[in-house]
Amino acid sequence: xxxxxxxxxxxxxxxxxxxxxxxxxxxxxxxxxxxxxxxxxxxxxxxxxxxxxxxxxxxxxxxxxxxxxxxxxxxxxxxxxxxxxxxxxxxxxxxxxxxxxxxxxxxxxxxxxxxxxxxxxxxxxxxxxxxxxxxxxxxxxxxxxxxxxxxxxxxxxxxxxxxxxxxxxxxxxxxxxxxxxxxx
Length: 184
What we know:
The protein is 32% helix and 33% strand. It is an alpha+beta fold. Strands 5-2-1-8-9 form a 5-stranded antiparallel sheet. It is globular and about 50 Å long.
């Protein structure tokens, strides 16, 4: 059984910018959860056998083909009570991505989700202690990232790395939605 994650990922420049923030934080506090993870917005995670891969990949490809690429602006840092420190999209970007996350979750009916998320955020660190979270809050105060999301990305958990890696990308093409049945 493989573990997969369906995400929206920013462009390479934004991935690199987030990586640099993670490296700066690790210089101050040492290792932390998500330190080596590439920047992404998690939509859902699931477990599935290899034999079903063609089926769920076809479904993800169709879903992605019916979504237009979209712009995101992130302009703040924030955190959750469980010790996640993250980059937050502005209100317009958050609303757009939340709508698209819900659409992907709803339309991926053949995939049994283990975890799903409709709260867009780019994690810098997870499971920080209150002391380490405070260091992150003091270290990072201003952010301004703008990028276009052009793919729905499937990541697969790599047991040797103990990390998700990019497995397949499905381009966002903005095609009209397929209609089931015929019209007469």
